[in-house]
């Protein structure tokens, strides 16, 4: 993909932000594919793949150590508990109409996040008159 196409997308004032967002996602997907093709054609990539395989084998060996395994399990369980407690705190804040809570010089705050999700098309069917 050429730079002029990218520049056209960025400089077109007629595009709305949402359309531009999804067009740029497409550009990124194409560029990633091009980058992968170029990397796969390099000799260094073959050597890198061999080293990655060796690294994975060593990583698995370390993970298989009994002490490492036990601590990893403990860490996982503790993280799960932390997420559950975080959800309970979130619910309490919403129910009490608060945005944040402070303890010992630290703060937990509710925030809104923009997240991309797949459109399953169900909303469009409901809005259309019969």
- Let me know the number of strands: 2
Instruction: From the alpha carbons, calculate the radius of gyration and give it in angstroms.
Output: 24 Å
The amount of beta strand, in percent, is 5-15%
Spans of at least 5 consecutive residues whose pLDDT stays below 50 are none
Determine the structural class based on helices, strands and strand pairing. Answer: mainly alpha
Describe the protein.
Helix content is 69%, strand content 6%. The mean pLDDT is 85. The chain has helices at 3-11, 17-40, 43-63, 66-95, 122-127; strands at 100-103, 106-109. It is flat, with a radius of gyration of 24 Å. The chain has a two-stranded antiparallel sheet.
Short description:
By secondary structure, the chain is mainly alpha-helical. 69% of the residues lie in helices and 6% in strands.
What's the topology here?
Elements: H1 3-11, H2 17-40, H3 43-63, H4 66-95, E1 100-103, E2 106-109, H5 122-127
Antiparallel strand pairs: 1-2
Core attributes:
single chain, 130 residues, mainly alpha, two-stranded antiparallel ribbon, 5 helices, 2 strands, 69% helix, 6% strand, flat
